[in-house]
Amino acid sequence: MGLFHEGQKVWVEQPDGSRRAGVYVGEAETAVWFGGPPVSYVVFPEAKEGETVPMQMIFARDDE
User: Fold this and answer.
1) Cα separation of 38 and 7, whole Å?
2) Using CA atoms, how far apart are residues 42 and 25, in angstroms rounded to an integer?
3) Cα–Cα distance between 39 and 9 in angstroms, integer?
4) Is this structure's pTM higher than 0.90?
5) Which of 56, 22, 59 is nearest to 42 (CA)?
6) How many distinct helices (H) and strands (E) make up the chain?
C-alpha cells in the first residue's frame, strides 16, 4: 500500500523550494526497475498537464 491514493490532493516541491498544488495519479513502477528513484504521476489541474515526480518531492495537502 502506497503513501498516497489516486485522486489525493498533494503538494509538489519545486526546485526553488516553493510548492505547487497537484493531484496524485499513481506510482510509476518501471522507474525503479531501471535503477532510478521511485517516481509518481501527478497532474496539475490549473495547467491541465501532468508529469512524473520523485516521491521525495510529494507531500500530502492539509486541505483535503
Assistant:
1) 19
2) 5
3) 16
4) no
5) 22
6) 1, 5
Three-state SS for 2-20 is CCCCCCCEEEEECCCCCEE
Closest by alpha carbon to 21, among 60, 39, 5, 40? Answer: 60
DSSP 8-class letter at 38 = P
User: How would you classify residue 18: left for phi > 0, otherwise alpha for psi between -120 and 50, otherwise beta?
Assistant: beta
pLDDT tens for each residue of 21-64:
999 999 987 655 677 788 999 999 988 899 999 999 999 998 75
Instruction: Say which DSSP state 37 is in.
Output: P
CB burial of residue 10 (10 Å; 0-12, 13-18, 19+): buried
Identify the H or E element spanning 28: strand 19-28
Identify the residue with better confidence: 1 or 28. 28
